[in-house]
Amino acid sequence: MGTRDRIIDAAEQAIHEYGIAGATTKRIAKQAACSEALLYKHFAGKEELFLAVLLERMPALAPALTRLRLGVGQGDLAANLVEFTGKALEFYTRAAAVAGGVLGDPPLMAGFRSMLAKHDLGPHLPIQALAEILRAEQQGGRIAPGIDPGAAASLLMGACFHRATLTHFVDLPDDDATWAASIVQTLFRR
Amino acid sequence: MGTRDRIIDAAEQAIHEYGIAGATTKRIAKQAACSEALLYKHFAGKEELFLAVLLERMPALAPALTRLRLGVGQGDLAANLVEFTGKALEFYTRAAAVAGGVLGDPPLMAGFRSMLAKHDLGPHLPIQALAEILRAEQQGGRIAPGIDPGAAASLLMGACFHRATLTHFVDLPDDDATWAASIVQTLFRR
């Protein structure tokens, strides 16, 4: 395992244990058995390192979108969407703690925001990717013409992100599978 | 203005300036011109103080829900829901930084979670309140029978919470009013 991967693993572990606030580069470097100077050779700052954790260690969303894209026009659409909803929920449950920690730290947030803008990245992109898939399904006649694919993607992803955050704060009364089925059924009803 | 209100104002200001991580009781007490001991007479801990900020200084959601409840069966339902969506977006944009900061700090999160459970509170309650209103509108025939009111409430609130979080990270391409109209139109289409 290379140094870069060791550092990303150590960062993920530190975020899990101490939160973003306590995941200092000193702590991360020590856990990765490297110097802080070496850490900064691989990552310009905490922003870049946390982005790598999000993109490289919490990969449930990209493969789930790919699977949904490859399944356009095939199989049972409601079942495909319920499966995707479960994967999105799983991804956001892990990502929420990182995103939240960044949000709760104004200087880190400012750096993170600049970095995303510079690289044309952002947490809104998965909504756009889902909207494109829904548009393709609509063109194939499997989604009602009255649905705006962009709005439907915002609603579905938003519900998953919100629920993932809620589960950190409270024990929800209903189980995820029942919830996912009712969300998909209500949103895509014909 | 009483001491309690001064402390809550100071906490809101400190969260805005330094984030949850930097909003120490020392800093808050100094800003409120009181001792830390006096702060702890009013609030058992940061958890209670931050909850008071959420409930007493960011009140856009409760009045918006009341307005929607009082409007059941009256006026233009889509317009009422679009107005509510705007208010929810406004509330969550301010609340996201507090919720995120709590999420990013595991010990604070654990305390916050226990406190919510003890008082039967939680960020899922507004979804339940919205679901009841939607159920009443459905019984009055203004919402399609195929809609599950609980699922629709999850979708609408989730989309608002997600978008509010996204706006902290990136400049979104579409404006809020257009977005709110398309969300309501897609979700409640007949």
UniProtKB/TrEMBL annotation, chains A, B:
Residues 24-43 bind DNA. Keywords: DNA-binding, Transcription, Transcription regulation. Residues 1-61 form the HTH tetR-type domain. Pfam families: TetR_N. SUPFAM superfamilies: Homeodomain-like, Tetracyclin repressor-like, C-terminal domain. It comes from the Bacteria. PANTHER family: HTH-TYPE TRANSCRIPTIONAL REGULATOR BETI, HTH-TYPE TRANSCRIPTIONAL REGULATOR RUTR. This is TetR/AcrR family transcriptional regulator. It comes from Nonomuraea composti.
